[in-house]
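[Help] Beginner question about ligand-bound structures

Sorry if this is basic. My supervisor gave me a protein sequence and a SMILES string for adenosine-5'-triphosphate and asked me to "get the holo structure". I don't really know what that means in practice or what format the answer should be in. Inputs are pasted below exactly as I got them.
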Amino acid sequence: MTGETGRPLVAARGVIKVFGEGALAAPVLKGISLTLTADELVLVMGPSGSGKTTLISILAGLMRPSEGEVELCGTRISGRPEAVATQVRREHVGFIFQHYNLFPALTAHDNVAEVLRLKGMERNEARRLARNVLEKVGLGERLHSRPGELSGGQKQRVAIARALAHEPALIIGDEVTAALDSETGMSVMNLLRRHVTPGRSVVIVTHDHRLEHFADRVVEIEDGRILRVRGGHWKQPV
Ligand SMILES: Nc1ncnc2c1ncn2[C@@H]1O[C@H](COP(=O)(O)OP(=O)(O)OP(=O)(O)O)[C@@H](O)[C@H]1O
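Answer (accepted):
No worries, everyone starts somewhere. Holo just means with the ligand present. The predicted complex, written as structure tokens, is below.
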């Protein structure tokens, strides 16, 4: 459930994912069970092609498993109509994916504000909050730029601001810092770390070991299986 420390935010049991059929069938996830509690930052690491993106897409209800069960924010989403996953996702999950998924015709400010409007926030409040979050990710000067006028790193920061703005229970990110210089990457990780509070978690796929300083746990995937789950290097500031 959301809102309660220590309760599972995501629970996956025996997840198998096979792409293609017959002679072309390719098993990508081979039986993954994983529980994420509601106040941790978890990294998913492993070699290219090991199934990391597939796994987080299934955990977030963006993709269906071939077999196994997935529960997201207290609701079982596997084996149920697509609308169930869509509803849970809309209410509780924020995404930061490699392709940004920004609206090309909208300014950075509107890209963030529109998501808040879709969640029912009043216009002026949505715009005020959107500005505030964009300033926090260092884009206060680029509020009126459209995605086509921004660099890869700046687009990534708009996507991060959008995910942070509506304060979802779960933020899922794929290589969130890959397009950023080291300093911006670390400031973005600080923002994501601050999102982790009772009831809120962050899961990030990465190849970057420096991010372990922000992580409570690291899930290592190899060839579609969990190789091991170990502690990250996060230390609560005193
Ligand atoms: N929609 C799809 N159809 C068929 N095969 C797919 C699909 N999506 C992923 N795959 C295959 O599944 C395997 C795992 O892909 P995935 O993107 O999950 O790996 P990854 O660990 O995230 O890799 P990377 O670190 O390179 O991003 C790859 O061999 C990929 O080609």
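A couple of things worth pointing out: The chain has a mean pLDDT of 91. Residues 19, 28, 46, 48-54 surround adenosine-5'-triphosphate (CB under 6 Å). Feel free to follow up in the thread.
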